[in-house]
Amino acid sequence: MTRNNILSLLTAGAMGITCFSMNISAESAYAAGDVDMDGVVTGHDTAMVSRYLQEEDYMLTEEQLVLADVDADGEVTQADADKLYNDMQVYDLGNATTEDKFPFLTLTDAFCAINYYAYTAAGIICDEMNNVEMNLVDVNVDGKIDMTDGVIIAEVYTMTGADFYNIILESGIYYYSIDVESPAYVGNIYKYNKEVIWN
Ligand SMILES: [Ca+2]
Ligand SMILES: [Ca+2]
Ligand SMILES: [Ca+2]
Predict the structure, then answer these.
(1) Residues 157/162/167/172 CA torsion (nearest 10 deg)
(2) How far is the CA of 65 from the centre of ligand 2 (A)?
(3) Domains of the chain, with CATH numbers?
(4) pLDDT tens for residues 100-126?
(5) Residue 139 · residue 149 · CB < 8 Å
(6) Residues near ion ligand 3 (Cβ under 5 Å)
């Protein structure tokens, strides 16, 4: 059974098909696409939908699934992730510095993630980022900000600076991972780099 079928069954069972749209408007206090419910549609929302589509064990709640169905066809599919990425998100995943002029990731973004982790690990409150920015630096969408996110942002920054396009994003996967089993594995960026330089 595919994920879409499961969603359809789940939705039908929980709400009843005939009153589906009524329940959406009644239950969703958030804008379509705001899957993490932080008030802004960003690359983090896209990333959550993308990981949900790619990895079976990554779950979204029923309300999040409704919010994720941005083309309103009753299913959460790649089309929703593509629409979020291409037409809806206002900040890119990893862009913690939403106030700056740079639309791409910089080392400042990596620093924000690492600095936040260092402070909180030391028991010190770090409030340099707002909720939207904190969600944005969680680039592997595992619900926490740690060294992994900082390292990944730095890797993406490096490859962007070296003028290699981002093959993960280009392939329609909109989050990052350092897990080699994940389709979002950032090591693929390095692989591409070597192919370009040495082949
Ligand atoms: Ca959001
Ligand atoms: Ca859809
Ligand atoms: Ca994370």
Answers:
(1) 50
(2) 9
(3) 3-88 (1.10.1330.10), 107-198 (no CATH)
(4) 766 778 899 999 999 999 999 999 988
(5) yes
(6) 138, 140, 142, 149
